[in-house]
Please model this.
Amino acid sequence: MTALRLLLVDDDVLVRSGLRVILDSEADLTVVGDAGTGRAALEVAAATDPDVVLMDVRMPDMDGIAATAELVARDPVRPRVLVLTTFEDDDYLFRSLRAGASGFALKRADPDELIDAIRVVARGTSLVLPDLTRRLIATHAPSRARGTAALPELTGREADVLRLVAGGLSNAEIAAELHLSRETVKTHVSSVLLKLGARDRTQAVIAAYERGFMAR
Model:
């Protein structure tokens, strides 16, 4: 099994050191670099080619929001960005997601919860902290008036899948809910992302709310 390559970005060297110890102890995770500013993160990411970047938001030189946006602009597929936060400011969190982050994890979370969040982001098969993520997007995303034709490019089945994605269901859970195979669900999710121009499930949910597809 190939280990997931991780980049740690936080202006607190003790936080980075502690995370490295925790994450490097997992057989399927390996820390390939770290940085203390957003600008340094861009340089280290280019040199180390990580799968997932654990990104602090408030940092000197370049904050995590701007760094996330730059990483996404460089490559729309990878790395995935997992924002690390104390959850003090919803606006910062939403702006991070809008910039292209795939999810967020609380700094006070247990190590097992953080590790699970990293794996979820890397797999892309469900939302991280789905209840909090949906509340955050529903509260902060600007929205058009809701209507049945909000996303006319989607088929009826794709619309069903998007609603369940927004509810935080994994591919396996969606398959069970709609009585479909996991492979069929995976195909529908990929089609939804392509049609909405979304790099991952989080960005698809943001698009669904902004275009009036989801009730608030």
Q: What stands out?
A: The mean pLDDT is 91. The chain is about 50% helix and 15% strand.
